Amino acid sequence: MTKQDFGQLSARIREKLVAVARQFGRATGSTSDEAEDVVQEALVTLWELVEKGYPVRDAEALAVRLTKNICVNHFRKRKIRFRPLEEAAQSGSAPTDSPLEAEENQRIRKCLYKKLSETQRTFLTMRSDYALSLDEIAAATGRPKNSIKVSLSTARRQMLEELKKMNAL
User: Fold this and answer.
1) Confidence band for 158, pLDDT divided at 50, 70 and 90
2) pTM of this prediction?
3) Is 87 a domain residue?
4) Please, which pLDDT band fits residue 87 given cuts at 50, 70 and 90?
5) How many domains does the chain have?
6) Looking at residue 136, which CATH number applies to its domain?
7) From CA 61, how far away is CA 68, in angstroms rounded?
8) Which of 11, 30, 101, 108 is the most exposed place for a label (fewest CB within 10 A)?
């Protein structure tokens, strides 16, 4: 795609992207000025992808997706609220990194991991303990990336259900 093609594309889809960003903005309470910034950021990202040789089949659909993702990122950034540590600390409470708490967390983790399949345990260990990406896990295990995602999701869901059962007792 040439610069001229991109210019024509961006002129043609700009209003649609602004409408998407404004609709998201109305739902989340952000300003209309922010919609223009989001669209500009989405178009810059699209151009960078094109420049890097990313295979773009439907540029308009990709631009809409980029716009939505950027809207979500802006929303998440606004939602983060930081409290000073003095407010967060409660008098008389044990520090969160106490050996007793760490030991309890490790015991619960072992109990939860026992209920998972060997494959799920392996994937979770690689993902959480070794901080490997899905691509790295796929390369190390020879399994498809999608299969790993599904396995991790299923394992996390099972662990959450088990935690709920433990707390219900």
Assistant:
1) very high
2) 0.45
3) no
4) low
5) 2
6) 1.10.10.10
7) 11
8) 11
